[in-house]
TrEMBL record:
InterPro entries: FdhE-like_sf (IPR024064), FdhE_C (IPR056796), FdhE_central (IPR056797), FdhE_N (IPR056774), Formate_DH_accessory (IPR006452). The keyword Cytoplasm applies. GO terms for biological process: protein maturation. Signal peptide: none annotated. Belongs to the FdhE family. This is Protein FdhE homolog. It comes from Pseudoduganella lutea. Necessary for formate dehydrogenase activity. The lineage of its organism: Bacteria, Pseudomonadati, Pseudomonadota, Betaproteobacteria, Burkholderiales. It holds the Pfam family FdhE_C. The gene is fdhE. It comes from the Bacteria. Residues 19-191 form the FdhE N-terminal domain. Coiled coil: none annotated.
Amino acid sequence: MVQRLLEPGEIESLDHTAIPRLLLPRPGELYAARAERLRQLAQNNIQGIPVDAALASYVNVMAELVQAQADVVKTLLPAGIALPPQDDMRIAHEHNMPPLPVTGKRPAGWRAVFGAILDKLEAKTADQPQLAAALAALRALDDAQLEGAADAVLGEFAEGIDAAQAPFVAAALQVTWSVMAAQLDERWAQPLVTGTLCPVCGSHPVASVIRIGGQSQGYRYLHCAVCASEWHMVRVKCSCCEANSKVAYQGLTDADADPVAENVAAAKEGKILNKANDPTRVARAETCDECHSYRKIFNQEHDYNVDPLADDLASLVLDMLVSELGYARASGNPLLRLGAPE
């Protein structure tokens, strides 16, 4: 079969918006749904993402932090947070740079967001003395220390911040940038030179997700760790080095499951095995033998309520198994900082 080449006029007439390139965040819904997802994960109620008791305790604390984010977002909307001057965004647009960069000067209001999140968490300290101690230490940070901590979080530096304090600083930065991103006209965000960084703020993705519904059906999106924007990247392409020849998927399989026998039994009955809502496919690690890194991918086709950041945090067992195979994590999770190596 000979493929017909399209003429220039025909190319211009194609619908280039058929695949939504960019999905801007909806912070008014995002954080409340994420907090609920974290609570369900902590209760070990999500099939495909097993959570042990030790991790569940930490996930519960992070659920409280994300709920505080949700409560603070309600106070910020609909007024929002002022965007950078249009001249700055125009220059970024013309040079294929993110319009809301995490580098450079931060919005002055982010420290007020940080304080508001701590205020929301104060009510939870009565039965959580460790949280009370953490909040006291966070409130003791002066402006210079807090800005230095923000630099460490946004730059993913190994040093410069206490590991226990990092999620709280990250939470304020996430709220600030996601609220700004929600106000953005997506036309300001041009594709970057690399598809591995967020076109809105320039941050690394925390994980990727296969979305369902509407024009996004079946497409893979990278989820920004800071502003929560999502951008399209084709499947079977490394989200770290963009190679596509040595990508594989590693997952968690129930020890009692026998997929071969299951398929054989279905075939004998003349049935096609239905893989919808398959817990073994909710969370997987996408590994690359080109750069020897990995990043997790979550599938909404098998769990409608997947949240890339929450599910990534709760699936630490998958991190351990993949790291044992010799792969390095491509980027971190803002709600869990492992600290600098010894």
